[in-house]
Amino acid sequence: MAESPARLLQSDWRAEGVTVDLVERELRTDNCGSGITLQGNALRVLQDIGVWTAAEASGYGFEALGLRAPDADGTLIVELNDARTGGPDLPAMMGMERPVLARIMRNAAEEAGVKMRFGVTVRSLAQNDSGVDVEFSDDGRGRYDVVIGADGVRSWTRRAVGIDLEPTPTGMGIWRLTGPRPPSVTRTDLIYGGAGYIAGYCPTGEDSLYAYIVEDAQDRTARST
How far, in Å, CA of 212 to CA of 204, rounded? Predict the structure, then answer.
């Protein structure tokens, strides 16, 4: 029986003597995030790393984009066929629930031999010509050839290595929600103008969708949830 792509990846890493540690400050959970729209080039990457079958079974693929007017009826202005940038064997786009995609990626990484620790952050970094010494919040330590900090727009890693940049607010905020997918929702539709800068929705599975609206940022910290 042929090996799965993840198993082949694991074999390749080990043959090259590569080991990977991944630390995540959040606890291991599948509840974070709403939805995501993946273009064809992203779907090709999922195929290349061996998780396309799982992603396809969990997402919702489609080939077109709709633009609607910001009126009471959401009148359809135009339907645009999108290019299959991932290749002819993949959809032009696919919507997925972010927690589902994260779980698929995490499982593939663990199958490939990545050691994952959750609820852990980096406390300090010290680099010299031969590597990087890392101290973790759980009092663990490690030495690595390469350290990659994928820790967001307010990156601790960026500041730790001496890059003094801070994000500048745009004045816009976004609201997202998830819910059941009506049969009529079979693609992404977008609305520009009206009550917000942009609003839209995307199917994320046979029974789910996510929707969003971008508006002027507002301080809602005093409002109850």
Answer: 13
